[in-house]
Amino acid sequence: MFDAKIYKQRRDRLKKQVGSGVILFLGNDESPMNYPANPYHFRQDSSFLYFFGLDSAGLAGLVDIDNNKDMIFGNDVDVEDIIWMGFQPLLKDRAVKVGVEETAPLDKLEETLKNSLRNGQKVHFLHPYRVENVVKIEQLLGIKSAGIKDYVSKELVKAVVEQRSVKIDEEIEQIEIALEASYKMHTTAMKMTKPGRYEIEISGAIEGIALSHGAGVSFPVILSIDGQTLHNHYHGNQLKEGRMVVNDSGAESSLHYAADITRTIPVSGKFSPKQAQIYNLVLKAQEEGIQAIKPGIKYRDVHLKAVTVIASGLKELGLMKGDVDEAVKAGAHALFMPHGLGHMMGLDVHDMEDIGEDQVGYDNNTNRSEQFGLAYLRLAKELKPGNVLTVEPGIYFIPALIDKWSKEDKFAEYIDYNKVEEYRDFSGIRIEDDVLVTDDGYRVLGKPIPKTVEDVEAITGTE
Ligand code: GLY
Ligand code: MN
Ligand code: MN
Question: What is this structure's pTM?
Answer without folding.
Answer: 0.97
